[in-house]
Write a structure and sequence with these properties.
The chain has two domains: 89 residues; 155 residues, Vaccinia Virus protein VP39 (Rossmann fold, 3-Layer(aba) Sandwich). The protein is of the alpha/beta class. The chain has a seven-stranded mixed beta sheet, sandwiched between helices. It has eight helices and seven strands; from the N terminus they run αααααββββαβααββ. Helices cover 42% and strands 18% of the residues. The protein binds S-adenosylmethionine.
Length: 280
Amino acid sequence: MPSGSSAKKKKSKRKHASRRPVTYVKQNKKAHSEVISTLHNLNKAIESTKANPSLTKAEKEAHIKELQKDVEEAGGIAVYQVASKRGESKHGSFNSAKWVVKTLKKHKVKPASVEEKHLQLLDVGALDENYQKWKSWICATAIDLNPQSPAILQADFLDFKKDVSQVYDVIVLSLVLNFAGDPIIRGKMLKQARRLCKIDGHVLIVLPLPCVKNSRYMTHDLLKEIMVSLGFTCIDSHDSKRLAFMMFKKSAGAAVTHKVFPKKEMKNGVKMNNFTIVIK
Ligand SMILES: C[S@@+](CC[C@H](N)C(=O)[O-])C[C@H]1O[C@@H](n2cnc3c(N)ncnc32)[C@H](O)[C@@H]1O
């Protein structure tokens, strides 16, 4: 039997729970995902305008200006990131770092050189300092186009460390490839990951599951094939209800084939999306 005071506490907890504004939580969740999807769509529209061969330079500029105005009206990229961060902490509690660390441990990933104590990890598109908890063995560099905290470096991954190569043991691209609206930019991100990854290093990719499961142009296997052509081997892969997780190793002996991967329809269906990655 609960004591009088603990019974009281439980009763008060229940009272609070029943008073909890359920609709508030639901509405917020809806609002966050609406912001995220509006900005994703505007981003995609900007990239497809840039790539539209039937528009003149002036038409492109005018259209992009309009779309950028819409981005600002929707709150801009900062609001998008706050929404993502809130969505992460309040609703999904998804944090790719937990999966990254678990998978690094599973595969006994160590720094490429024996003198190094820490794994050099690059977290691309970081909303937070995600690897602080493991700082005794992971030295993380977090970058983002529009950092939300002073601990994150402001940098475009595509221009990052242009003068050096093979810098990181681990590169994390979590929900970043799908953020870029242009399939060619996504391909460039994968090539950049190859350049910055040490031999025997790893690239870990997280994507929304529909990008590889319900796209006309992309599948799990095609993404693996692209990575193989860039000199990687897939060593771990699984799907959750909403996300696809893949870990690739840059193998010393693997040949880079420089194969071209154009946008190519693989399946079709009315409810399918158009996510793809293009390697030129
Ligand atoms: C959906 S958030 C992903 C956040 C986090 N990695 C996660 O897994 O939840 C995508 C982030 O990638 C960043 N991003 C997109 N392209 C980038 C680039 N080229 N260089 C650096 N950051 C980039 C965006 O600014 C945005 O904050």
